[in-house]
C-alpha cells in the first residue's frame, strides 16, 4: 500500500520554499522532511506546518550545506526511510555585487551557496532517484542566471550554474521516470530581496510564486518562469545584441 | 524612506520601513536602528496610531507563523503578524473560531491586541483582549516581557489596547471558541427611529450573540435604519460561498462618496434591505467582513482620503447624544456611507486604553473636505465631550488632547509602561511624545 507522498525541501526556511510546503500540505497530508542550516529557524517552519496540517509527518534535518560528505550522508539517510517523490532544492542568498567584486571570499561564498551547494544536493538526490527510477528533482534557479548583468553577475553565475546543470540532468534522465524541473523566479517579495524592495523594485508576491511552482511541478513542466511574464522578458534580454545590451544600466 | 499611508489615506509621510522577518533577531532590529520606531501590521487603522512620520516602522507581517494549536482546548499560539483571516480559515473547519474579530479579517494578531478590537458580539464576548491568554512583548532595550491576565497583569493591561506603545508584540496565545461550522442564523429588522433601535437592542441582547445596525443618517429625518442580529447555527451541509474579489482599481480624482451618491445609496440600500428583511442563514465571512471582498475600497474617497469617527457615549445620555450628532451631521449637509450604531455590553475592558465601555457607539465616515470636515468633527467632539464619551484611537487622526484625556482616565497609569524607544503620530499628538 502506498503511504503518504514523500516530499523533501532543502533550504526550508527560504520564504518561497516554506510557502510551497504550505501549499503541498494544504493539498494533501504528506510525509515532509525539511532540511535547513539552522535548527531553530527550521523548527519554526516545521511548527507552523504542523499546525496547518496535523495529519502530516514532518521531520527536520540540519546539515552543513557546503560539505560534500555531509550532503551525501544527509541524502542517504533521508532515503533510508523510503523513496522520495519530490525534492525542492531552494536555498540561496542574494549577495552584494560590489562586495563580491572587492572581496573574493564573499564572491566564493556567493558562488558556493547559490550554485555549487544546490548542484551537489541535486546530484546526491539524482543518485538515489536513479536507483529507484522514481521522483522529481525541482531546483530553484533564477532569471538572473539567464544572462550576466553588471548589477548581480556573481549571483547570476551561481544561478546560471544551476541552469546548465539542470539541462544536463534533464538530458540524463530523459528516458527514465525521474523528472527534473528548473524554476526561475523573477524578483520576489521575500526577506532575501529586502534591499531590492527598498530601492523600489517591483516584487512578485511570494504566495503567487509558490503557487505557480507547486502547480508547475505537479504538471511536470521542465522549466518554470514565475511570474510567467519573465519568460518573455528574459527571452528579449537574452537576445539583445551586445551594442544595445551594453547601454542598459541593469 | 518611503511614503506610508494608513487606511484613511489622509497622509503619505515618509517612513523608514524595516521588515521583521525572523523572530530570533527582532531584538537586534529594535535596538540598533534609529529610534523611535513603531510596529506596523496591515495598516488597517484609519488614522495615525499605526504611523510614525519621519521615523521607523517595524513591519510585522512576515512574523506569520503558527506555533502550536491545541485542538481539544482551542488554544492557538502564533506569531503576531499572523492574519485573523488565516486563523479563521485554519480553525473553522476544525470547529473553532476567533471569539472576536473586527469588521475586517485582514488585520494582524498584534494589531488586534494593540487596538483591543471589538465586534457585533461585545455584550457577550467582550473585546479581543478578553481572549488573549498571554503575549510576548519585546522592548527596545532588549527586555522580553511575557504577560497575561494572570501573569504580570499590569503589563498585560497596558499592552491590550496599548496602541503598540509598550513594546513590540511578537507572539500571543489566543483562546478560540467552539462553533458548529461557518454559518449564522441572521435577521434584518428595519427600524424607524432611535427609540425603536434601543428597544430592539435591549430585546435582542439576551437571545442574540451578534447585534449591530446600519443607520441612515440622511433620509427619514435621521434615525431610521436596519437592525442586524445573528447567532451561530448548524444548518447542515450548505455550499460555501465563492469568495469573489473585486478591486477598486485606481484612486478616482474626486471622492465617489458625495452628497448625491450618498443620498441615492442610502435610499437604495435601506429599501433593498428592507425588502429582504427577515431571517436568513449566512456564512460568517460576508456577515462579519462585508467589505473584505472589495479590495482597496478606501480608494473610492478620492485622493484626499477620508475620516472615520467612532465614539462611545454612556447609555444614560446615549439617545440624546446620538440624536444631537445625527442632527449636526444632517445640518452640515454631509452624510456618512458606513454609519454603524450599536450598543456595547455592560462590561469594562481589560486594557488601560481600550476603547469599548458600556454605552452606545456610533461609527461614521466622511470624505476629507478639509476645513469643512474638521469643523464638523469639532462640533461632534463637543457633543461627545459633553456626554462624557470617548473616541476610538484606531479610527482617529485628529482628536484634541483634551478629549483624549477626558475619555481615557487611566492614561496617567498607562504612561509608566510606555517604551521610550517607541512613538507614533497619535502618541505625539495626544500624549506629547
Name the shape of chain A in a single word: globular
Helix content of chain A: 40-55%
What is the number of helical segments of chain B per DSSP (H or I, 4+ residues)? 13
The tally of strands of chain A reads 7
Key features of this structure:
heterodimer; A: 250 residues; alpha/beta; seven-stranded parallel beta sheet; 7 strands; B: 433 residues; alpha+beta; Alpha-Beta Plaits; eight-stranded antiparallel beta sheet; five-stranded antiparallel beta sheet; 13 helices; 21 strands; globular
Describe the structure in your own words.
The complex is a heterodimer of chains A (250) and B (433). Chain A has a 7-stranded parallel beta sheet, sandwiched between helices. In chain A, helix 3 runs parallel beside helix 5 and helix 5 (104-132) packs parallel to helix 6 (153-172). Chain A has 250 residues and is an alpha/beta fold. Chain A contains 10 helices and 7 strands. The termini of chain A are far apart. In chain A, helix 6 links the parallel strand 5 (135-140) and strand 6. Chain A has helices spanning 15-27, 39-52, 68-80, 97-102, 104-132, 153-172, 194-198, 206-219, 229-239, 242-245; strands spanning 5-10, 30-36, 57-62, 86-89, 135-140, 178-185, 223-226. Chain A is 52% helix and 16% strand. By secondary structure, chain B is an alpha+beta fold. Chain B has a domain at 183-398: Alpha-Beta Plaits (2-Layer Sandwich).
Explain the layout of strands and helices.
The complex is a heterodimer of chains A (250) and B (433).
Chain A: E1 5-10, H1 15-27, E2 30-36, H2 39-52, E3 57-62, H3 68-80, E4 86-89, H4 97-102, H5 104-132, E5 135-140, H6 153-172, E6 178-185, H7 194-198, H8 206-219, E7 223-226, H9 229-239, H10 242-245
Parallel strand pairs in A: 1-2, 1-4, 2-3, 4-5, 5-6, 6-7
Helix pairs in contact in A: 1-8, 3-5, 5-6
Chain B: E1 2-4, E2 13-19, H1 26-32, E3 37-40, E4 56-59, E5 66-70, E6 75-79, H2 84-91, E7 96-97, H3 109-114, H4 122-125, E8 132-138, E9 144-147, H5 153-159, E10 168-175, E11 177-178, E12 183-191, H6 194-205, E13 210-215, E14 225-233, E15 246-247, H7 259-275, E16 278-283, H8 284-288, E17 294-295, E18 306-313, H9 318-332, E19 340-344, E20 359-367, H10 371-386, E21 390-391, H11 401-407, H12 411-415, H13 425-430
Parallel strand pairs in B: 2-4, 3-4, 15-17
Antiparallel strand pairs in B: 1-2, 5-6, 6-10, 7-11, 8-9, 8-10, 12-14, 12-16, 13-14, 13-19, 18-20, 18-21, 19-20
Helix pairs in contact in B: 9-10
Amino acid at each position: 500500500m502506498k503511504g503518504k507522498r514523500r516530499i523533501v525541501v532543502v533550504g526550508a526556511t527560504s520564504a518561497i520554499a516554506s510557502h510551497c510546503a504550505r501549499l503541498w500540505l494544504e493539498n494533501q497530508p504528506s510525509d515532509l522532511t525539511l532540511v535547513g542550516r539552522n535548527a531553530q529557524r527550521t523548527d519554526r517552519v516545521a511548527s507552523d506546518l504542523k499546525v496547518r496540517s496535523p495529519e502530516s509527518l514532518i521531520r527536520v534535518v540540519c546539515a552543513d550545506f557546503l560539505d560534500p560528505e555531509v550532503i551525501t550522508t544527509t541524502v542517504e539517510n533521508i532515503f533510508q526511510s523510503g523513496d522520495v517523490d519530490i525534492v525542492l532544492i531552494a536555498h540561496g542568498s542574494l549577495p552584494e555585487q560590489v562586495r563580491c567584486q572587492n572581496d573574493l571570499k564573499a564572491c566564493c561564498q556567493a558562488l558556493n551557496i547559490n550554485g555549487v551547494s544546490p548542484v551537489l544536493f541535486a546530484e546526491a538526490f539524482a543518485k538515489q532517484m536513479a536507483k529507484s527510477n522514481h521522483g522529481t528533482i525541482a531546483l530553484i534557479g533564477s532569471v538572473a542566471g539567464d544572462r550576466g548583468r553588471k548589477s548581480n553577475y556573481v549571483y547570476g553565475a551561481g544561478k546560471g550554474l544551476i541552469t546548465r546543470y539542470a539541462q544536463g540532468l534533464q538530458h540524463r534522465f530523459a528516458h527514465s521516470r525521474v523528472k527534473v524541473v528548473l524554476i526561475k523566479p523573477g524578483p520576489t517579495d521575500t526577506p532575501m530581496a529586502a534591499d531590492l524592495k527598498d530601492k523600489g523594485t517591483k516584487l512578485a508576491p511570494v504566495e503567487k510564486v509558490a503557487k505557480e511552482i507547486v502547480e508547475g511541478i505537479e504538471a511536470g513542466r521542465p522549466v518554470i518562469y514565475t511570474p510567467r511574464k519573465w519568460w518573455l522578458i528574459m527571452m528579449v534580454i537574452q537576445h539583445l545584441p551586445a551594442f544595445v545590451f551594453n547601454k542598459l544600466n541593469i | 524612506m518611503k511614503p506610508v499611508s494608513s487606511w484613511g489615506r489622509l497622509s503619505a509621510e515618509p517612513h523608514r520601513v524595516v521588515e521583521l522577518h525572523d523572530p530570533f533577531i527582532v531584538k537586534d532590529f529594535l535596538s540598533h536602528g534609529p529610534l523611535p520606531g513603531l510596529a506596523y501590521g496591515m495598516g488597517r487603522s484609519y488614522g495615525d496610531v499605526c504611523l510614525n512620520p519621519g521615523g521607523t516602522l517595524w513591519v510585522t507581517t512576515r512574523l506569520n507563523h503558527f506555533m502550536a494549536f491545541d485542538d481539544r482546548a482551542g488554544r492557538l499560539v502564533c506569531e503576531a503578524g499572523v492574519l485573523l483571516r488565516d486563523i479563521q480559515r485554519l480553525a473553522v473547519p476544525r470547529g473553532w473560531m476567533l471569539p472576536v474579530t473586527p469588521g475586517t479579517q485582514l488585520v494582524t494578531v498584534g494589531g488586534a491586541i494593540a487596538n483591543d478590537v471589538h465586534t457585533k458580539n461585545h455584550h457577550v464576548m467582550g473585546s479581543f483582549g478578553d481572549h488573549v491568554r498571554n503575549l510576548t512583548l519585546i522592548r527596545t532595550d532588549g527586555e522580553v516581557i511575557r504577560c497575561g491576565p494572570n501573569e504580570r497583569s499590569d503589563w498585560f493591561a497596558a499592552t491590550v489596547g496599548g496602541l503598540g506603545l509598550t513594546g513590540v508584540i511578537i507572539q500571543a496565545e489566543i483562546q478560540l471558541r467552539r462553533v458548529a461550522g461557518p454559518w449564522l442564523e441572521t435577521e434584518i429588522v428595519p427600524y424607524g427611529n432611535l427609540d425603536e433601535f434601543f428597544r430592539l437592542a435591549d430585546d435582542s441582547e439576551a437571545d442574540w450573540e451578534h447585534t449591530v445596525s446600519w443607520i441612515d443618517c440622511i433620509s427619514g429625518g435621521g434615525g431610521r435604519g436596519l437592525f442586524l442580529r445573528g447567532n451561530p447555527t448548524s444548518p447542515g451541509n450548505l455550499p460555501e460561498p465563492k469568495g469573489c474579489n473585486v478591486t477598486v482599481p485606481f484612486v478616482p480624482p474626486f471622492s465617489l462618496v458625495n452628497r448625491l451618491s450618498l443620498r441615492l445609496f442610502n435610499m437604495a440600500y435601506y429599501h433593498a434591505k428592507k425588502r429582504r428583511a427577515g431571517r436568513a442563514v449566512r456564512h460568517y465571512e460576508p456577515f462579519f467582513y462585508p467589505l473584505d471582498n472589495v479590495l482597496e475600497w478606501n480608494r473610492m474617497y478620492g485622493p484626499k482620503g477620508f475620516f472615520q469617527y467612532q465614539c462611545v457615549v454612556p447609555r444614560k445620555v446615549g439617545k440624546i447624544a446620538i440624536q444631537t450628532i445625527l442632527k449636526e451631521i444632517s445640518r452640515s449637509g454631509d452624510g456618512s456611507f458606513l454609519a454603524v450604531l450599536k450598543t456595547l455590553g455592560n462590561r469594562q475592558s481589560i486594557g488601560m486604553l481600550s476603547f469599548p465601555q458600556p454605552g452606545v457607539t456610533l461609527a461614521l465616515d466622511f470624505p476629507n473636505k478639509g476645513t469643512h470636515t474638521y469643523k464638523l468633527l469639532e462640533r461632534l467632539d463637543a457633543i461627545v465631550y459633553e456626554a462624557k464619551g470617548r473616541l476610538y484611537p484606531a479610527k482617529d487622526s485628529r482628536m484634541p488632547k483634551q478629549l483624549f484625556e477626558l475619555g481615557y482616565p487611566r492614561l496617567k497609569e498607562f504612561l509608566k509602561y510606555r517604551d521610550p524607544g517607541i512613538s507614533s503620530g497619535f502618541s505625539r499628538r495626544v500624549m506629547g511624545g
